[in-house]
Design a protein that fits this description.
34% of the residues lie in helices and 17% in strands. It has 325 residues and is α/β, with parallel strands linked by helices.
């Protein structure tokens, strides 16, 4: 059965698939554009990016596609509201935000007619986001990559949030690697769409260094670890030499803070430096955030091939569930 479209605010994606936003410079316009062209929602990772650079990338994406372009910005960023307003001024279609919770973001969304998509990991924050005016909610479970807000698996967490969110689309995220799982989450669990990130790193269009992709491609299950992030949340990453040192509690404290990017930072290490190093191909010193199930992904595809694979697999199993909101 054909998958239904996903409507968030005034925008409708013909394929209910959201590409997760990944920073720093992992998901840029180079990735977001082809995702939007395929009928999904392409997301630029906006955290820790200079505002002018982010605006230029948004304008590049908007000029290249009539599809939907979002920006993901962590609430933990010190210049969160500057990045949000800068993105809106540059013409972004919607703002996605997590790693903390902002009440004021919904006022900005209402004033500028910009849909706000909240990433949550608990029923209480899901209810609050819906009450305050979120246009959609992403349920991100413990299988996700990057910063984590829960230790609960997706198939346990999602039903609890589905019970309390009735008015806006609910999107499942964390560990989804194929269209069969997409259909399962939409059919069995009542998701209105899914969000995937790690799968899109392993595409030809993703602009990270080839060594970054190879680290993911050759990762085994035991190569994935939980680390302490300066953001104040645990994070899921691949065991690069840097992560191995972190797990051994080696002193990695930066001598000085160059970026001053976070509202609160424990300065165990500079996350901006480490994420940038990995993106540029330095696997010795870099931090590679990754989903729990990266070991299941065996090939680098084009974005179009990922979409075709997910849609064909999902539509071979999908049966429209009863309305939930």
């Amino acid at each position: 059965m054909k998958l239904p479209p996903l409507t968030i605010g005034k925008f409708t994606a013909q394929v209910p698939l959201v590409q997760g936003g990944m920073s720093i410079r992992v998901s840029t316009s180079a990735l977001a554009i082809p995702v939007a062209e395929c009928g999904g929602i392409g997301t630029i990772g906006g955290s820790a990016i200079p505002v002018e650079e982010l605006q230029a990338d948004i304008r590049k994406a908007k000029a290249a596609t009539k599809g939907i372009i979002a920006v993901n910005i962590m609430f933990a960023m010190k210049n969160f509201y500057t990045l949000v307003q800068g993105s809106i001024d540059a013409g972004v279609d919607m703002i996605v935000t997590g790693a903390g919770f902002s009440r004021d973001i919904f006022k900005i969304g209402k004033e500028t007619n910009t849909p706000i998509v909240s990433i949550v990991s608990s029923p209480s924050f899901a209810m609050l986001a819906e009450k305050l005016g979120a246009s959609a909610i992403v349920v991100e479970a413990k299988e996700a990559g990057g910063h984590l807000g829960t230790t609960v698996p997706l198939r346990e967490l999602f039903p609890e949030i589905r019970k309390v969110v009735k008015k806006v689309p609910l999107i499942a995220a964390g560990g989804i690697t194929n269209g069969y799982e997409m259909a399962e989450m939409m059919d069995k669990y009542g998701a209105d769409g899914i969000q995937i990130a790690t799968r899109f790193v392993l595409t030809k269009e993703c602009s990270v260094a080839e060594s970054f992709k190879q680290a993911m491609l050759h990762a085994h299950k035991e190569d994935i670890a939980l680390i302490k992030s300066p953001v104040g949340l645990p994070g899921r990453a691949i065991k690069t030499p840097f992560v191995e040192k972190l797990l051994r509690h080696t002193d990695l404290k930066a001598k000085e803070c160059k970026y001053k990017c976070l509202k609160k930072c424990d300065h165990v290490y500079c996350i901006s430096d480490r994420l940038t190093a990995a993106c540029e191909g330095n696997m010795e010193d870099g931090l590679v955030f990754s989903g729990e199930n990266v070991f299941k992904i065996k090939e680098i595809l084009t974005v179009r091939e990922v979409f075709d694979q997910f849609v064909s697999q999902a539509e071979s199993m999908y049966k429209e569930p009863a309305a939930t909101y």
